[in-house]
Design a protein that fits this description.
heterotrimer, A alpha+beta, B mainly alpha, C mainly alpha, B: mainly alpha, Ferritin, 63% helix, C: mainly alpha, 12 helices, 2% strand
Chain lengths: 106, 279, 335
């Protein structure tokens, strides 16, 4: 799975690889836990990078990587009006939305 | 001694007048990994993507770890023979150019075949594909070595180089079947590395008694499988397998490229400036 | 960096964030030492301050790789070479964790890196000093990472969840680095006379810049109050700096090395070490871009990025081809 969703974040020189969320199951008997995110061009590399970055190549660790934009979230407790409380994105990622050029996030 | 054996001994004569075949064999394996690790170190803080800094750093650490295990063993073999202590650092930092037994493949910079400055990621990945596929075949076989220490080192190393091979494959596929520019660059890199392939499979420097006793692996027996594996990746990457004559080498006899001297000067200078010091 | 933004004398301070309506719950969570998560209502100033701070923290990790990576090929023993490689690799990882945390706030890593490359965002000035001897590796591990730890431990409890969680991960690894730096200096200070002199020289050069990592004195830190009100900063610059000095002085003694401050002395009443007045003038020069390594560090980073463009593009092109094949039904999905 690849692709950058709707990117509005500037020239191709500045655009990074797509964002993936990483879930790690440290050992059998436990469930996968969200560990963080990283950028990779495709799923195969996302898995390899996740193993390097989030497990430091420990053996016996199970990894899931999911394109960040594919995750839908419902968090009624977090009440930012910008989001639909019923089913929305997990973060305020700029790549999810059509952001006009020149908008300064910083 | 047979004429053949005596000729082989002569070939090693300058390099290791008093050293055993086992020492030379272990050192040759160690030096491949040590020098490869040294070159890979240049990519840290310079890779095309932060994730790649981490991946290449891991690979360099693996190679260095293999070198350390092998050099430590070689040091023990040497110490047993001479009665003088010899460890990984005395071998890494206090041997001269003609005593290193690595292949030419690993000692050249990542800028290009003639020692051009700079670091070309295509060169690094083409070279890693070649080296790691070779080391994978080597360590797989070496796991069955009659020398217990070598077998143990190989058992650990084989998993590591399998990862290196996977990493190099991933990148060669992406560079070969990526953009027109990346295709051209990685093809050029492959063409430039290919003359150094044959040296990996040369067995003439290995003490025949080690091959007989199955302590050592005969690298000439690894060639066919290696070729199939690499050809498969090259083909899938829409690249062409180079057809080039082998370079004149001699690394296994301590005859290196001009780049080796500079590499060793950088690597050894500090330790040699303070002989006997502990760090 | 690390939440201690310097204003050089000729720079104008940023305006304090305007107070926004509807943020009572946001402030209540913070005041109760709770955690703000990415989709919470939050003050725009909070979001922007955090993006900037986290990004500059990340940039510091990335640029900070360079002064140490310099010595990997020249390390004087294989063990030290391995330790240094692993340390620099950890720093890359820390940068990644931090960029990931910043992205949860609506930043984009490509944009953040661009801000670094064009000078719109900064990194810690400590990395604009050169590493001129092997002993600098030990000094950086001991002093610079030591200072970073003192800054970062409180951040593990900062109000913003993703940043705090990234800090927990970072702190675990950072403590190794400091110990290894200390160990490396110890080997030098208990080695030959030349090695000992090398160690002392490095400490003499890195001590004051390490103290300055904690930022300006409290009475010259206009943003501290707001940062504390938002639960981003838990202790003031001077408090953290004092903590660092008190930790380091006995360690210096254990090393058999001196710290280049004639005014360093134990104050029984305060239960802390008094130390000399810091001269920030040199640091302001470094912040403005006139330090020994400013141009070099950024140029190295920009070059790595530019030289790698063809590689990143190739990976993108390959991914696009694979995706097209999948949707055409011509290939199995790649595992």
């Amino acid at each position: 799975m690849s692709g950058n969703g709707m990117s509005g974040s500037g020239t191709s020189e500045r655009r990074d690889w797509p964002l993936w969320e990483v879930f790690v199951r440290a050992k059998r008997g436990m469930s996968h836990v969200h560990a963080g995110s990283l950028h990779a061009p495709d799923a195969e590399m996302a898995l390899r990078n996740a193993r390097d970055v989030y497990t430091r190549r420990q053996e016996g660790v199970s990894l899931w990587v999911v394109p960040a934009f594919a995750i839908s979230a419902s968090s009624p407790d977090e009440k930012d009006a910008f989001f639909d409380p019923a089913a929305d994105k997990i973060y305020r990622h700029p790549t999810f939305y059509d952001v006009p050029e020149g908008v300064d996030h910083l | 001694m047979t004429a053949e054996l005596s000729a082989r001994s002569d070939a090693l004569a300058y390099v290791h007048p008093d050293k055993s075949g086992l020492f030379a064999y272990v050192v040759s394996l160690a030096d491949d990994s040590l020098i490869a690790a040294q070159r890979m170190g240049h990519w840290i803080a310079a890779a095309p993507q932060i994730e790649e800094d981490i991946a290449l750093g891991n690979i360099a650490l693996d190679l260095l770890g293999q070198a350390r295990s092998l050099l430590t063993y070689a040091g023990q073999v040497e110490a047993a023979a001479t009665g003088t202590p010899c460890d990984e650092d005395s071998l890494a930092y206090f041997r001269d150019e003609r005593d290193f037994l690595n292949v030419h493949l690993v000692e050249r910079g990542h800028g290009g075949p003639g020692g051009e400055p700079g670091s070309d990621f295509g060169v690094t990945m083409a070279r890693l594909l070649i080296l790691s596929t070779y080391q994978f075949g080597l360590y797989t076989a070496l796991q069955s070595s009659t020398d217990e220490t070598l077998a143990a080192i190989a058992a650990k190393a084989v998993k590591e180089v399998d990862y290196h091979r996977d990493h190099a494959t991933m990148w060669v596929l992406r560079l070969g079947d990526g953009t027109a520019e990346s295709h051209a660059k990685v093809q050029a890199a492959l063409d430039a590395e290919w003359p150094y392939v044959e040296e990996l499979f040369d067995n003439s420097y290995i003490d025949p008694s080690l091959l007989e006793s199955r302590a050592a692996v005969d690298p000439s027996g690894l060639r066919d499988v290696w070729q199939r594996r690499v050809a498969s990746v090259v083909d899938q990457a829409t690249l062409t397998l180079p057809v080039v004559p082998p370079a004149v080498t001699g690394g296994r006899r301590g005859i290196h490229t001009e780049q080796m001297g500079f590499l060793l000067a950088e690597m050894q200078h500090l330790a040699r400036s303070h002989p006997g010091a502990t760090w | 960096m690390y939440g201690n933004d310097f204003i050089a004398p000729d720079e104008t301070p940023r305006d304090p964030a305007p107070v926004e309506e509807g943020l009572e719950e946001f402030q209540q969570i913070i005041d109760a030492a709770g955690t703000i998560e990415p989709r919470d209502v939050m003050a725009e100033g909070y979001r922007k301050t955090l993006i900037r701070q986290i990004a500059q923290h990340a940039h510091s990790e990335i640029i900070g790789m360079q002064p140490e990576a310099n010595w990997i090929t020249r390390a004087p023993s294989l063990r030290r070479k391995a330790i240094l490689m692993a340390k620099v690799q950890d720093e890359a990882g820390h940068g990644l964790y931090l960029y990931a945390a910043a992205e949860t706030l609506g930043a984009d890593r490509g944009e953040l890196l661009d801000a670094l490359h064009t000078g719109r965002q900064k990194y810690s000035s400590i990395f604009n000093y050169p590493t001129v001897t092997w002993a600098d590796m030990g000094a950086i591990g001991w002093l610079v990472d030591g200072a970073a730890i003192v800054n970062q431990v409180p951040l593990c409890r900062c109000s913003y969840g993703p940043y705090a969680r990234a800090m927990v991960r970072v702190c675990k690894e950072e403590s190794f680095h400091q110990r290894q730096g200390f160990e490396s200096l110890y080997a030098l200070s208990h080695g030959t006379e030349t090695q000992k002199a090398m160690a002392q020289d490095a400490v003499n050069r890195w001590w004051w810049p390490s103290l300055m990592m904690f930022g300006p004195a409290d009475d010259e830190s206009p943003h501290t109050a707001q940062s504390m009100g938002w639960g981003i900063k838990r202790f003031s610059n001077d408090e953290l700096r004092q903590r660092f000095v008190d930790m380091i002085v006995p360690q210096a003694e254990a090393l058999g090395l001196t710290l280049p401050d004639p005014d360093l002395s134990w104050n029984e009443d305060r239960g802390s070490f008094d130390y000399g007045k810091i001269d920030f003038a040199e640091l302001f020069e470094v912040i403005k871009g006139n330090g020994p390594c400013n141009k070099q560090r950024l140029a190295h980073r920009v070059k790595a990025h530019k030289d790698g463009a063809w590689v990143r593009e190739a990976a993108d092109a390959y991914a696009a081809k694979q995706a097209a094949q999948i949707s055409d039904g011509t290939t199995e999905a790649v595992a």
